[in-house]
Amino acid sequence: MEDIEKFINGFSRFQQQYFQDSQELFDSLRQGQKPSTLLIGCCDSRVDPMLLTGSDPGDLFVVRNIANLVPACTPTASAGVSSAIEFAVCELEVERIIILGHARCGGIRAVMSPRKVERETDFVNQWMRVAEPVAERVRRDLAHRSSAEQHHACELASILLSLDNLMTYPWLKRRVEQGLLKLHGWYFDLEKGALMAYSARQHAFLPLVGSLPERQDAA
Fold this sequence. Notes:
The model has no long low-confidence stretch (mean pLDDT 92).
């Protein structure tokens, strides 16, 4: 019950902050939404897009799934993810899409170290097949590296896979080519507290917001 009370009290603070102290914002939101950004992030409870970006209601159109994946545009693509992307691009006409990956991703761990599941369903491994091409490449090319290094490499590679898969949606590709839509790949380093962004020019993830100085133990 303590968790439930925490959530209820949190809503009370939200109500005070936005419905009373920011009435103008919610008056406009009642008329409809016009977010500038679609953010595709992971379901991981440690990686909340609104919290990480300091966003207000109405700023982000958010899609969350295990390992922040985008399936390629095929007849069998996940309708849940693909329909949300379609709505954001075609109806809301967002200006940018951010794929937000993160360190220590459980979904990436599942695809890099698959195990037999003893239950009636196996939805996680079915979904993670989206990332299997990059997982295979990492296992092959980095076979001499540690498991932790392979997982990190796959976390980054899966972001690039999702960016590539976005471009398989024809209506999205057209808007990118017309200069109406920008695509970004971000990586939240959960260990260092840093934010990295993919640079197509340098073919690397570079610091967007650096990590904080290491804390010194009290004397």
